[in-house]
Amino acid sequence: MSERENILARIREALVIPAPKPVLKDKAVAEPLEDGYAAFLPAAGNTFEAQQKQFKLNAVDLKADFHLLEDASEAAVTLAKIRDSEGWKKIATHRGALTLAVCDALGLAPLIVDDTFDKNALETCDAGITECDALVAQTGSVLVTSRSAGGRALSVLPPHHIVLARRDQMVPDLPAAFALVKRKYGADFPSMISFITGPSRTGDIERILVLGAHGPKKLTILCY
Amino acid sequence: MKISLFIPCFIDLCFPKVGISMVRILEKLGHEVECPEAPACCGQPAFNTGYWDESRDTAIKVIEQYKDAEVVVIASGSCGAMMNVFYPELFAQTRHAEAAKAMAAKCFEFSSFLVNRLGVSDLGARFPARVTFHDGCHGLRELKIKREPRVLMEKVKGLELVEMDAAEVCCGFGGTFSAKFPMISTAMGEVKCDSALKTDAEYIVSNDSSCLMHIQGLLDRRGSKLKTIHLAEILAQS
Amino acid sequence: MNAIAQQFKDQATRMTRDLHHRELIQTALGKYAVKRDEKIALFQDWQGARQRASEIKWNAVNHLDEYLVEFTKKLEARGTVVHWAGTAAQARGIITGIVKEKKARLVIKSKSMTSEEIHLNEALEKEGVEVVESDLGEFIVQLRHEAPYHIVFPAMHLTRGDISELFSRELKSAPTDSPEELTIIARRVLRQKYVKADVGITGANFAIAETGMISITENEGNARLTAALPRVMITLIGLEKVLPKLEDLALFLPMLATVGAAQAISGYNTLYGGPRQEGEADGPEEFHVVLLDNQRVAFLADAEQRDALHCIRCGACLNVCPVYRNVGGHAYGTTYCGPIGAVITPHLRGLKDWKHLSYASSLCGACTEGCPVKINLHHHLLQTRRNSGSENPVWWQKIAFKLFAPVANVRFFWAMATRLGRVGQRFHPLVKGTRLDPARAWTKTRETPKLAPQSFKEWWRQRK
Prior knowledge:
B: alpha/beta, C: Rossmann fold
C-alpha cells in the first residue's frame, strides 16, 4: 500500500467518529452566503468614485503611490518624472497593451522578460513595469498573475514596481477579485496568482516597520 | 423568593464578610435566604487537576443538596462557572446528566443575579472611594459577566470607578496553578498589581475572592497601601 | 516531574526573573493589541466572520480525505508532483532526495514552522547543502543557531542592538542601530542567494482543494522570490491545512492578517498551482508539494480535540496569553509554543512528556476568545489534564482529592477542618518560608490569607 493510500485510509478511519459541529452561541449569523463573505468583511464602495477613493486611502496607508490619471500620455509624463528623480538606468517589462507603449515613451530600452532573460540582468534593473488583472478597493491590493504581469520575478525582484491599470479593472473587494479570477481563467489558471498590497515590508526588528525587505521598496500604481 | 446560597471553602474560612454581605443585601431586598450547612466545595480543584471521578464525588453532593432549591446564588465567578458551565460537561453520559443540567440552569453568580434575574441595580449603597475593577476570568469569559458589576457600582454613592488597562488580563491565580507554577503565577499577578497601581485607586474590586486573595497576597508582600475588596462588601455598605 | 517538565519550570523561573525581557514582550504585544483592535473594528461583523471561519474549517477537516484527494488531483493535472509523508523522517527523506537528485548546492527557504517541526535544515546540512533562511526573522535566529521565538515573529525577543552585534560578528557588517540599515544589510546578502539558489523550499498557509493551489501569506516578498527564481520549488505543508474553495481565502486572508500581525491584509498573498507553464516568462521547471502527516492523522481520531487541527497558525493565542507574555517562546522547549502549542504538542510528541504544558495555564480563556477560527483551546487544556489524570495519575493527588470530597461536603468534617486550620495557622509562622512550610510555593512571593475568627458557616449557625 502506498503511503498515500495508508494515510487516506487512516484519515477515513479517524473520521468515523464525528466531531461536534461549531455551536452558534454568541450571535445570529446571516444566511445564506451567495455574496461570498462580503457581509462580514470591511465594507467596500459600489461606485468607481467610492472604490478608487478607498483604494487610494488604503494604498497611501500602506506607503504605495497611487495616481489616478486621464490617459496613457499622462501616465508617460508621470513615469518620466519618476525616471528622472530616481535616475533609472535600466528597466524591465513584459509585452502588454499598456506596457510597451509607456516604455517607448520613456526612451529606455527595457529588458523584455517574455524573451529568455538572465536573472542577474533582472536583478540589476531599477524598475519593473507590469500590467495587472485588478485593483481591489477594499484592501488596496493589486492582483497580478504570472500570465498578466510577465511571470513571477518581474513584479518582485526590481526595487521599484510600477503597475499600469485600467479604470475598469477596479473591483470592490476580495470576493469580487476571486470571482474575477475564476471568470477570466476558467479552469486554465496561471501557475501563480498574487495579491500585492504595498511595497515589501518587515516588522521583524523590534516590530518596527521597515520597507523594502526583499521585494520592492516602492510600489507605484498608475490608473487610467 | 427563596434564595439558596452556595458559600465556597475560601469564602467560608477566609472571607466570611463576603457571604454575610450577600445575606444582608438579599434580605434587605425582601427575599428569604437559606444556606445549607454542608457543601463547601463545588469540585473545581479536582476537576481542574484532571481527576474527574473525584470531582464528581464532590460535585454530586452539591447537586443533591440543592436539588429542591429555586435558585442558587454564588459569590464567586469561578465556582459559578464550574456549576453553570462545567457541571453538564462533567456529568455528561452519566446517570446524573439531567440533574447536572438542571442544577446549571438555576445557578447564578451574585452580580449577574442581582442585575439580570432580579432586575435590581440600586441597592442604596454608599462607598466613597476611588476603585478599579478586576474582571475575574471565569466570570468574564465563561459567564460573560462584564456589564453587571459596573451597573451596580455606578449606583453606589461616592464611588469613583477608574478602569485599569489590564482589567481583563488574568491575575495569575488559576487555582492549583498558583502553587504548581508559582513563578508564572506571581509574574502575572505583578502585571495586574502594576496596572492597578497606575490608576491611583484605593481599592481593587472584583467578583471573585480567589483572585483577590492572590492579589492581596502580592500587595501585602510589597507593603502596598492598595487594598482588595469584594463587590458584595461594597454593595452592603450604607 | 519528568525532565522535560522540569526544564520548562527552570526556564520559566529564569524568564520571569528577567524583567527586561518581560518588559520587551509586554510592550511589543501591548502595541499589537491596540492595532489589532483597530483592524477588527474595520470588519462589518468580526464575530460573524469567526463563526463562519470555524464552520469552513470544520467542514474541511471533517471531510479531509475527500478534499485531499481533490487537491492532489488538481495539482497533479497541471504538472505538480505530490508526495505523501507519514512521518517526519519520511518528509526529510523525500525533500533531501529531491535536493540530492538535482545536485543542488544551495537551498533558499521561506518561512515554514512545519520545516522546524521536522528539523529539515539539519538533515539538508548533513548532506552538504547550504540552507539559507530568507525571512528576516528566521535569517536572524538561524545566524544565532536558535529556534524561532514566536510562530509569526521569530526574532521578537531581540533588540536592534542584539541584531547589529550579530550581523557584525557573522556578516562582518558595520554596527548600526537603525532597523532600516540592518534590513538593507540582510537584503544585500539574501538577494545574491535568491539568484544563485538551485532549489527553493517554502511552507504554505492553506491548501485550496477546489483549484489545486497552495497559498502563501507574507510581507517581505521573500517567499515570492523563493518561488520565482530557483529552478526547483518544493512546498512542505501539514495535511490539515485544507480549505475547500478558492473564495474561502476572501475571508481567511484578512482574518489571518488582522489577528496575526494587526494588519488589514499582508503584503503578498500568493497562490501557486504548478510549475512554470508554457508561455510564462519564468518560474520553476519542477514543483513538488509534500503533504505531512507526522501524528496529525492520529490527532484527527481524538474527535473531542479535533478542532485544534483547524488552526491557521496565526499566533493570536500567543499574543494574548498571559503565560506566554511572561515566559516567552523559548521556555516551551518545542516547535509550537503558546496555547496552541500546549494543546497540540501532547498529541504530536506524547502525552506523558508534554502534559505539563496543559497545567502551566490558569485557564483564563483569552486564547479561545482571540482565536479567529474559535478553537476551544482552554477547554482542550482541561481535557488533556483529564486524559493525563486517567492515564498517568499522580497517586497522592488522586487520594487527596478522594479524601477531600467527604471533608468538604459533610458538615462535621468541615467543622473539624475549620478548627484544625485555625490551629495550623498559629504554628505556620514558625515554618513560613522554610523547607518545612507546606505552603512554600505560595509564601515564597505572597502573604497567605488569614482564617477569619468566625467562619461564615459558624456565623450562619449562630444566627439561627
